[in-house]
């Protein structure tokens, strides 16, 4: 009896951490695939041009390696953000299914689980996300203002040394809101689409995953891109000669963007953003 308890304990521990481990590993693998797309997305949001012009300019002026700039920060972000996000989502949905006596969850409950998991993940992943955006945006700054971070840990240590520990969570507000919106759109619609294609329409495994990923990627992009746009602007901004920042906060950034470019400005780079999200959904 004692030996059976010893064997059960490790299994119980693995059962608890498995959603987190799977989430982190899948997120890191997906990042290796989409890092060039993510880099192009950030450059588009910073006003560098269309996807084709950004890609050709980067290739010509910076070389192939430029597309993977910030990869270490991207991997660290997934190791923190996605691990916490997907692990929390699975734990929350499992608890909700138990409370629902094993019945499938309605869409609103999946959405609530997604919102909560997104907020948890963003709180953990915000420092790495800040490092990622700054590394990706560095080449767009004037030469005198470039930070020249060599990797994610160098970026984090420099941020702490130059700006203080709390600066690691600069832009955390829109980061959390973005993650909540993305999770609500991605995870809830993905599970709902799986049920539709698999259970109602009788699709096979591959068509089900591809179809659910496409739908999920669209809704995740539509829900989260405006917040992603604001987050990028806040995280990359530099003070001017007088020490003033272009935006006082997320709301100020949103209002100035709306006034200058209208609502569609928040959806700059929408097709690229959809492509960027799709591999993450498939890995999930």
Automatic annotation (TrEMBL):
<dbReference type="InterPro" id="IPR002067">
    <property type="entry name" value="MCP"/>
</dbReference>
<feature type="repeat" description="Solcar">
    <location>
        <begin position="204"/>
        <end position="284"/>
    </location>
</feature>
<dbReference type="Pfam" id="PF00153">
    <property type="entry name" value="Mito_carr"/>
</dbReference>
<dbReference type="InterPro" id="IPR018108">
    <property type="entry name" value="MCP_transmembrane"/>
</dbReference>
<keyword id="KW-1133">Transmembrane helix</keyword>
<feature type="repeat" description="Solcar">
    <location>
        <begin position="14"/>
        <end position="95"/>
    </location>
</feature>
<keyword id="KW-0496">Mitochondrion</keyword>
<comment type="similarity">
    <text>Belongs to the mitochondrial carrier (TC 2.A.29) family.</text>
</comment>
<dbReference type="GO" id="GO:0005743">
    <property type="term" value="C:mitochondrial inner membrane"/>
</dbReference>
<keyword id="KW-0812">Transmembrane</keyword>
<dbReference type="InterPro" id="IPR050391">
    <property type="entry name" value="Mito_Metabolite_Transporter"/>
</dbReference>
<keyword id="KW-0472">Membrane</keyword>
<dbReference type="InterPro" id="IPR023395">
    <property type="entry name" value="MCP_dom_sf"/>
</dbReference>
<keyword id="KW-0813">Transport</keyword>
<keyword id="KW-0999">Mitochondrion inner membrane</keyword>
<protein>
    <recommendedName>
        <fullName>Mitochondrial dicarboxylate/tricarboxylate transporter DTC</fullName>
    </recommendedName>
</protein>
<keyword id="KW-0677">Repeat</keyword>
<feature type="repeat" description="Solcar">
    <location>
        <begin position="105"/>
        <end position="196"/>
    </location>
</feature>
<dbReference type="GO" id="GO:0022857">
    <property type="term" value="F:transmembrane transporter activity"/>
</dbReference>
């Amino acid at each position: 009896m004692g030996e059976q308890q010893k064997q059960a304990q490790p299994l119980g521990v693995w059962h608890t951490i498995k959603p987190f481990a799977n989430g982190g590993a899948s997120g890191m693998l997906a990042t290796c695939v989409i890092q060039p797309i993510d880099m192009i997305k950030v450059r588009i949001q910073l006003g560098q041009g269309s996807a084709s012009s950004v890609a050709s300019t980067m290739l010509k002026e910076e070389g192939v390696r430029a597309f993977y700039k910030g990869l270490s920060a991207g991997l660290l972000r997934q190791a923190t953000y996605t691990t916490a996000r997907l692990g929390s989502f699975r734990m929350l949905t499992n608890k909700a299914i138990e409370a629902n006596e094993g019945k499938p969850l309605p869409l609103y409950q999946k959405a609530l689980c997604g919102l909560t998991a997104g907020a948890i993940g963003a709180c953990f992943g915000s420092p790495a996300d800040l490092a990622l955006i700054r590394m990706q945006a560095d080449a767009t700054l004037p030469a005198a203002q470039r930070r020249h971070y060599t990797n994610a840990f160098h970026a984090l240590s420099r941020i702490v040394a130059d700006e203080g520990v709390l600066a690691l969570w600069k832009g955390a507000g829109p980061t959390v809101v973005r993650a909540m919106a993305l999770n609500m759109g991605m995870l809830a619609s993905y599970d709902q689409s799986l049920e539709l294609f698999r259970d109602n329409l009788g699709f096979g495994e591959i068509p089900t995953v591809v179809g659910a990923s496409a739908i999920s990627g669209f809704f995740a992009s539509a829900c989260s891109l405006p917040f992603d746009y604001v987050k990028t602007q806040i995280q990359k901004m530099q003070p001017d000669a007088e020490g003033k920042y272009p935006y006082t906060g997320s709301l100020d950034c949103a209002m100035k963007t709306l006034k200058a470019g209208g609502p569609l400005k928040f959806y700059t780079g929408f097709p690229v953003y959809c492509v960027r999200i799709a591999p993450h959904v498939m890995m999930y």
